[in-house]
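Reading a protein record of the kind used here takes only a little practice. Each token is a code from a learned vocabulary of local backbone shapes. With that in mind, consider the following protein and its fold in token form:
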Amino acid sequence: MPNTKARVQATIDFPRKKSHRSCKAPPTISKDSPSPKGPPLSPRKRLAGENLCNITQYLQCSPSKQKKENQPVTPSKPRGRKLEFVLSPLKRSPVKLDILADKSPERTPFSVHKGDETPRSKASCWQTARCPPVGLHKKKDLWYQQTKQVLNTAIPDRILAREVETKDVTHFLLNHVCGEKPGSLYISGAPGTGKTACLNWILTDLKEKLGASAPIFINCMSLRNSQTIFRTIADELFGKRKLKCRGKDFAKRLAQKLTCQGPMVLLVLDEMDQLDSKAQDVLYTIFEWPHLTDSRLVLIGIANLLDLTDRILPRLQARPKCKPQLLNFAPYTRDQIVAIVQDRLSQVPGESVLESAAVQFCARKVSSVSGDVRKALDVCRRAVEIVESVARCQAMVKSKSPVKAPCSPGLKKVGLPHISQVISEVYGDRMTSRSGSECFPLQQKLLVCSLLLLLRPSKVKEVTLGKLHDAYSKVCRSQQMSGADQSECLSLCSLLESRGIVWLKQSKEARLTKVGLKIEEEDVEHALHDQALTGNILQKGLQCF
């Protein structure tokens, strides 16, 4: 066997170690150099540095291992499909590059670095060119959000259209609290006329002048019953559970505390009509406190009833000293509602979302029904939500469609159709649904008939659930129909309350729960007279049963 080690070519000097940082240029081989003779070496018998001895063509290193830009590259003819890595940026068609330059002039389609095989951007430049950015309509969404925020029903920064009432309340507070003169003031008015908002704004403005007379504000709707008002006042005055006595003695102990020496006490009772009791002893006691000897209490009561002191508390007429001062907040007019809504919208910078005609239409409708400015703000905010939802849907459809549609020139505004749609939902006929009056359940119709029969003869606007159930049972027996028991009757009243037809005032005993109509009696009669059964019941009256 011939010795293969003796045939090793010594004329070609290959490097013993391969550097991973750089690759040297291939050595030049002269034509006159002798060619290797004999068969190639066996792979098993080659040394570690001699594995490249049989390769006549020089191989380049990988692109990431090339040293510098000035490193020469020997051209080679690829036999098949082969990736060619160059150090210059990748060349694309000029049409696509122009498109990308128009789309985003700040970004180049590729950022190719030396030695990188692929671009460093996560998403392809062609995907960026085809898909529009997600935040294209962020500015319009911001306008809608800011408009909805300023149309809330919270306490505003300034009070409009209530200059006379603000002046009267301010004069009362300065005269009695700062002048240390006890007294009482009763503020009445329909819901949404600015009673509580105006008083809170005045108290905030006069905080420094009132000094140590910090106001005690209690919402009577949050009380379980009328008797708990005394414990609540004691907890606010002296700390929670500091005044320890029996429940019946709280009124006497509070009267003693309010007549001793100390700073003036300002007590504000919102929703004061919720304190009615069997003989109205709670309201009489509270109205008598400011007129006790050496009293230091200034009382302000707020309620919706205009004739609370005349009809519910007739004994105050016999004692002129105990009669409070009266201040009525009239419903807002159309011009006042327009001024309030426009003032809210002016707080949003830029273009207004609501059209002027839409604001005028909303103010005219609300002022003719209730004059509740909160209702007007709710209608405008709901209309903005509808337009915002439509604008978002249109933006999503345009972004997903392959055909590029032209962008809308401006902001989609709230117009008359949107306000009309919301007003029809708010002030529409609640006795009949959109799908027909037959969807209104028969038992609920009979219950409304019974309530109407109880309220028509008298001027009382509310009845107890016990009386309502008795009248309802009589009507069901006369028509030979099975009626619901008292617990089921309460559930029916809750369903009617959710429809916005009646209101409920809960009590500890279900039979003492008070029920009243939330809409006009004429609208109820008109809706019920359309049916033969309910119309016959209303014609006969309750006495026939």
Notes: The first helix runs from residue 94 to 103.
